[in-house]
Design a protein that fits this description.
By secondary structure, the chain is α/β, with parallel strands linked by helices. It has 9 helices and 9 strands. 35% of the residues lie in helices and 14% in strands. Strand 8, helix 7 and strand 9 form a beta-alpha-beta unit. Helix 3 packs across helix 5. The N terminus and C terminus are likely disordered. Bound molecules: 2-acetamido-2-deoxy-beta-D-glucopyranose (NAG) (6 copies). One 2-acetamido-2-deoxy-beta-D-glucopyranose binds next to loops. This is Glycoside hydrolase family 128 protein. It holds the Pfam family Glyco_hydro_cc.
Length: 304
């Protein structure tokens, strides 16, 4: 029985690898060893961001060419420009930055709730100078709701009223929902901001069945890899299923810290058959439990 299961697992093909793939990094306080899973072995992740200006301590031994850190100006701050310049003069080759996390959203959902004209003033002083140094800049990372388009349009208008064209090199997208909605949203962003590259910097099918979530994951990854103007993407699921705020099935780790199928596929590996669960232990992620089950089935057949 165990041999048959092992043969089945090794027969499953690995997922397509992609240099576009990165990590939305939310460090695990309770299980710090989880932080290394994303950069171990044959992981194909090439870059990460952590919503902040500075690299994460967990990756202090990684260089920009190993695992590119992309700083983010989460909300208006007058220290951003000098922080980036200090990192560059310290030898870190920063080539991309991101700006304002969900400025059209409130803090209850992780948004920075920023007034577009306040962001415009801050962008002109902190972001435009970096762009002049050749750093590629991300437009404000608005939510996937219609308010995102409204906010961005007000932001660019506010720059014009302040005498500047705020220019973004790429447009980050956040999306929670199904693939049809995601593809339509990407089309709308690409149609509004013509000839700009797009990064999908947070996405997941939240709160759905495992089958639907896996199907969404495969379809969206294949789509992102195929579309040339989508330059990068980072899946929102680098945490354990029992602490997931987008539902357990979207998570890349089980409640025991093992890679789920989606987690392994995202790193360019094969299915693990580890099942995420909202609480407690997933059945197939505990080798000891399989042994107990096998033993009890064997015991049962002996009794019969
Ligand atoms: C980097 O540091 C982490 C601990 O912070 C360690 O687990 C990992 O093995 C180190 N990796 C390399 C390549 O040195
Ligand atoms: C910085 O990284 C970019 C992109 O990888 C590369 O083209 C450039 O040569 C690097 N610059 C330095 C000073 O290493
Ligand atoms: C902003 O861009 C427009 C259109 O390309 C151009 O006409 C205008 O001169 C630019 N304004 C500034 C301040 O660069
Ligand atoms: C977009 O790029 C194409 C091909 O380079 C060019 O023909 C077109 O004018 C560009 N459109 C805009 C709005 O910049
Ligand atoms: C997702 O892709 C993997 C790897 O190619 C494949 O084994 C799996 O069956 C796919 N799942 C779905 C639901 O498409
Ligand atoms: C999605 O799942 C999370 C975690 O299980 C839960 O907190 C949240 O209320 C769910 N949201 C919806 C819309 O069901």
């Amino acid at each position: 029985m165990l041999l048959a299961a092992a043969a089945l697992t090794s027969a499953q093909s690995t997922f397509e690898r992609s240099s576009k793939r990165g990590l939305v990094f939310v460090p695990s306080e309770t299980h710090p060893s989880d932080n290394q899973i994303w950069v171990e072995g044959t992981s194909d992740l090439t870059w990460y961001y952590n919503y902040g200006v500075s690299p994460s301590p967990a990756y202090s031994n990684r260089t920009q060419s190993d695992f590119e850190f992309v700083p983010m100006l989460w909300s208006p701050s007058n220290d951003f420009l000098s922080s980036i310049k200090t990192m560059i003069s310290g030898g870190r080759n920063i080539t991309h930055i991101m700006t304002y996390n969900e400025p059209d959203g409130t803090s209850s959902t992780g948004g920075s709730d920023v007034d577009p004209s306040v962001a415009a003033t801050n962008w002109i002083s902190q972001v435009e100078p970096l762009r002049k140094l050749g750093i590629k800049t991300g437009a404000p990372a608005v939510t996937g709701s219609p308010s995102g388009f409204t906010w961005l349009s007000q932001f660019f208008d506010a720059c014009h009223s302040q005498g500047t064209n705020c220019t973004a090199d790429f447009f980050p997208i956040h999306w929670y929902g199904n693939f049809e909605g995601l593809a339509s949203h990407i089309g709308q962003v690409a149609g509004t901001y013509v000839n700009k590259s797009i990064w999908i910097t947070e996405y997941a099918l939240n709160n759905d069945t495992l089958a639907n979530t896996q199907s969404f994951f495969n379809t969206s990854a294949e789509y992102f890899d195929r579309i040339s103007y989508i330059n990068r993407y980072s899946y929102f699921g680098a945490f354990r299923s029992d602490v997931s705020n987008v539902g357990p099935n979207a998570a890349m780790l089980t409640s025991n810290g093992l890679l789920t199928d989606i987690g392994s596929w995202y790193l360019g590996g094969a299915a693990t058959n580890n099942i995420p669960s909202a609480t407690g232990l997933g059945l197939r992620d505990v080798p000891g439990m399989i042994a107990v089950l096998v033993a009890s089935v064997a015991g049962l057949s002996l009794l019969l």
